[in-house]
Amino acid sequence: MQVTPEALVTHHTIYSCVMGSRAFGLATDTSDTDRRGVFLAPTPLFWHFDKPPTHVEGPAEEQFSWELERFCELALRANPNILECLHSPIVERIDATGRELLALRDAFLSREVHKTFSRYALGQRKKLEADVRIHGAPRWKHAMHLLRLLASARDLLRTGELVIDVGEDREPLLAVKRGEVPWPEIEKRMTRLAEECDQAATTTPLPAEPDRARVEAFLFRVRRDSALQSGPYDEIVQRVVR
Fold first, then answer.
1. 155: buried, middle or exposed (CB in 10 Å: 19+, 13-18, 0-12)?
2. Does the N-terminal or the C-terminal CB of the chain have fewer CB atoms within 10 Å?
3. Quick check: 102 and 86 in contact, CB under 8 A?
4. Is 240 within a domain?
5. Which distant-in-sequence residues (6+ apart) come within 8 Å of 126 by Cβ?
6. pLDDT, tens digit, for every residue of 36-50?
7. Is 103 in the same domain as 139?
8. How many CB atoms lie within 10 A of CB 228?
9. 20-39 pLDDT per residue, tens
10. Structural domain includes residue 175
């Protein structure tokens, strides 16, 4: 008998949240509900040649989850999507381990965010520019989210805190999504925000590197406790081990 990927998400999720427009404060009547989560695979599952999955899509629509170790690896690399997941204002499910993970949010933040957010933004901007060349207009929703990301990165570099709700910028951003703002004006905003990010990076209060040792100590302890403790899913794990 095997533990299915779906069962790992269903029974071993430590943290799940809503992301996308609903978390950013940009939701409309037609917005999807994007769910992201972190699951902790029982330690005995790692004692096989076939390891647990690093991520699982589903089982619900618009749902995606990472195994804890993979999630921490990506967060330490300042992956924009992962860091934003840690700061969602809409938490749907969390246990004691999940609360410990959220308490580590500051350990993942470093000056690396300037590089990773800027690189991601540049890639997205190139895609928008290609759309304009080919189709005469960008994908307005993507343009809106790129402006949001750049503003979020700038504020993170300035303050050392990541806030993903757009607050008072909601209506100006939704105007972009509706195609009410000319593309040249959007380009100017993107360029200005990118420059502001560069400037903020020179005086940011963020540390040079993330606190990898602190995160690793957390992961080690969680893996150890999982190996030692007995719980409602031990019978499943024991069947896999045999």
1. middle
2. C
3. yes
4. no
5. none
6. 999 999 999 998 888
7. no
8. 8
9. 999 999 999 888 999 999 99
10. yes
Q: Which of 185, 151, 196 is nearest to 25 (CA)?
A: 151
**pLDDT recorded at residue 231:** 54
Q: Are residues 165 and 70 in the same domain?
A: no
Alpha-helix residue ranges (DSSP H) falling in the chain = 5-12, 21-24, 68-76, 80-86, 96-103, 105-108, 112-135, 140-159, 170-177, 183-201, 212-228, 234-241
The number of domains in the chain is: 2
Q: What is the CATH number of the domain that holds 71?
A: 3.30.460
Determine the 3-state secondary structure of 187 from DSSP.
helix
Domain encompassing residue 77: 5-108+211-235
Q: What is the mean pLDDT of residues 195-219?
A: 98
Task: Please classify residue 30 by burial: count the beta carbons closer than 10 Å to its beta carbon, then call 0-12 exposed, 13-18 middle and 19+ buried.
Answer: exposed
CA 70 – CA 119 distance, rounded (Å)? 21
- Encoding tokens for residue 10? 């269903």
Same-domain pairing of 38 and 156: no
Q: In terms of Cα–Cα distance, which of 18, 75, 42 is closest to 223?
A: 42
Q: Number of C-alpha atoms within 13 angstroms, CB side, residue 34?
A: 13
CA distance 181 to 88: 28
Q: How does pLDDT run across 73-130, given as a tens digit for each residue? A: 999 999 999 999 999 999 999 999 999 999 999 999 999 999 999 999 999 999 999 9
Q: Is it the case that residue 237 has pLDDT exceeding 60?
A: no
- Which residues lie below 8 Å from residue 121, measured CB to CB, with a gap of 6+? 146, 149, 150, 153, 190, 194
The DSSP call for residue 87 is T
